[in-house]
Design goal:
Blueprint (H helix, E strand, L loop, with lengths): L1 H18 L8 E2 L2 E2 L3 H13 L8 H21 L8 H26 L3 H4 L2 H18 L28 E3 L4 E3 L59 H38 L4
Antiparallel strand pairs: 1-2, 3-4
Helix pairs in contact: 1-2, 2-7
C-alpha cells in the first residue's frame, strides 16, 4: 500500500507543480460552474518561468495523455471499476481490494488491541494516527484530500467545469436552449452537445480555435448561436495552457530554422574561401 501511495503522490505532485491544484478546476458558485482560471493560469506560468523549454514540456503532454488511463487505473486499486481493463482483470482488482482492505483492517485492529500502557504512549498514538492517515489517503476517504480519480469526487486536469444545465437542440424552435450557467470564460463553441459530445473534457475547449495565425485563443463561431471571441487564452485556463504549449513549439521550430540558417551561412563562407561545401 505504501509503495502505491508513493507512486501516486509523485504523479500528483508533478501534475500540481505544472497545472496547479486541481481543486481550482471544479469550483462552483451555487449551481454555476466557476473554475478559478486565474489560479490555474498563474500556476502554469510560474512553472514555465522556472525554465520550461520545448524539451521538458514533454512532461506536459505526458500528463495530458495519461489522464484517461489514470482515471481508470488508480480507482481500480481503491474501489473503482477500472473501465480500460478486461472483465477478468476487473474481477482480479476486486479480489485484490478485498484482500488489501482485510489486511489493513486486521492491522488496525491489532494496533487497537495493544496493551493500555503501550496505547498511552505519545509515540504509539502518533504512529497509529500516521497509519490511519495513510489508509484514509489510500482509500480516498480523507476529507481534505483533493487527489483526483481515487473516488470519483475530485477531478483531474482533463476535466473542464460543467454547468448545472446543459445545452440541447430544441427541434421545435430550431434553437440551442438551456445552459445559462456555463462558465463565463468557457469557449462558446464547446457549449453545444451537437458539436462536441464530450463537453466536460479539456479537449472540447479548443473547438473552433484559430491555430493558423495566433496563439491568443481566437475563437471563430462554428455552431448556431455561438460567437467570435478574441484573446480567450488569457482567461480560459485550458486554452491558456494549450496555447502556451503551442507557442513553445513555435519557439523550438524557430530555433531549428535559425540554427539551420546559421549553419548554411557558415558553410557558404567556407565554400567561398575553399571552393568546397562541408
Amino acid at each position: 500500500m505504501v509503495g502505491m501511495l508513493e507512486s501516486r503522490r509523485r504523479i500528483f505532485y508533478g501534475m500540481e507543480n505544472i497545472f496547479g491544484n486541481n481543486s481550482n478546476i471544479a469550483k462552483m458558485d451555487g449551481s454555476k460552474a466557476a473554475p478559478d482560471d486565474a489560479a490555474m493560469i498563474s500556476a502554469m506560468d510560474s512553472w514555465a518561468h522556472k525554465g520550461a523549454d520545448p524539451h521538458n514540456l514533454a512532461l506536459y503532454t505526458l500528463f495530458l495523455d495519461a489522464q484517461h488511463s489514470l482515471s481508470s487505473i488508480l480507482p481500480a486499486y481503491g474501489g473503482g471499476e477500472g473501465w480500460i481493463f478486461s472483465g477478468q482483470d476487473q474481477l482480479a482488482f476486486t479480489r485484490f481490494r478485498m484482500v488489501m482492505d482485510k489486511k489493513l483492517s486486521e492491522y488496525q485492529d491489532q494496533l487497537n488491541g495493544q496493551d493500555g500502557k503501550i496505547k498511552a504512549l505519545p509515540e504509539f498514538k502518533a504512529f497509529q494516527n500516521t497509519v490511519n492517515g495513510l489508509i484514509a489517503e489510500y482509500q480516498g476517504t480523507s476529507a481534505t484530500d483533493t487527489q483526483p480519480y481515487i473516488t470519483g469526487e475530485n477531478v483531474g486536469v482533463d476535466f473542464f467545469a460543467l454547468p448545472a444545465r446543459m445545452w440541447g437542440w430544441d427541434s421545435y424552435s430550431q434553437l440551442w436552449t438551456g445552459n445559462d450557467d456555463y462558465p463565463v470564460n468557457a469557449n462558446p463553441n464547446a457549449m453545444y452537445g451537437g458539436q462536441q459530445p464530450h463537453l466536460n473534457l479539456v479537449s472540447a475547449q479548443i473547438t473552433g480555435v484559430n491555430l493558423t495565425w495566433d496563439r491568443k485563443g481566437t475563437v471563430s463561431p462554428i455552431t448556431p448561436g455561438s460567437y467570435a471571441v478574441t484573446g480567450l487564452a488569457g482567461r480560459n485556463w485550458a486554452l491558456h495552457d494549450i496555447m502556451k504549449l503551442l507557442s513553445y513549439s513555435d519557439t523550438d521550430i524557430g530555433r531549428d530554422i535559425a540554427i539551420s540558417t546559421q549553419n548554411f551561412r557558415a558553410s557558404s563562407k567556407i565554400w567561398e574561401r575553399t571552393g568546397a561545401i562541408l
